[in-house]
Amino acid sequence: MVVSTYDEGHTVAGWTGTAIATVGSCVLGLGICTTSALVVTAGSAVVAVSVLVTWVLHLTGWGKPPGVRPVGEWPMRERDRSARAGHPECVGCRLAGRGRRVGRAGAAASVRSVAVAAEAVPERV
């Protein structure tokens, strides 16, 4: 069996956003069941807040960039030190004005770093 090298969403930002969105979805569902526009609006607002909280946590380093990462960066409590500069392929970073797209030379270096990271991943049997 091959272990996934992406490890997406296993971050403080991911889990916090999911928890807040779950609460918002429950409030939204309650509003639908009780036919209360006020409760539906409140639930929708909580879901919107979950998106903003996740984005802010990602930008402060508690989220991880998309793609392959070395095994040493997989733990959830490992903060991403490259977040301040932005991640090249990250939509959230681009929305914040960080991590502009890389040119061809940067893309080639990125492919090499992905290959090196993939070799560092231990295979589980």
Descriptive tags:
single chain, 125 residues, mainly alpha, 4 helices, elongated
- Largest pleated sheet: none
What series of H and E elements makes up the topology?
HHHH
Mean pLDDT: 78
Strand content: under 5%
**Weakly predicted, low-confidence segments:** 104-112, 114-118
Report the strand count.
0
What structural category do the secondary elements indicate? mainly alpha
Shape: elongated
Radius of gyration: 18 Å
Helix content: 55-70%
| End-to-end gap | 6 Å
Helical segment count: 4
Can you walk me through this structure?
By secondary structure, the protein is an all-alpha fold. The protein has 4 helices and no strands. The protein has helices at residues 12-33, 37-62, 91-95, 104-119.
Explain briefly what this protein structure is.
It contains four helices and no strands.
Helices and strands, with pairings:
Layout: H1 12-33, H2 37-62, H3 91-95, H4 104-119
Helix pairs in contact: 1-2
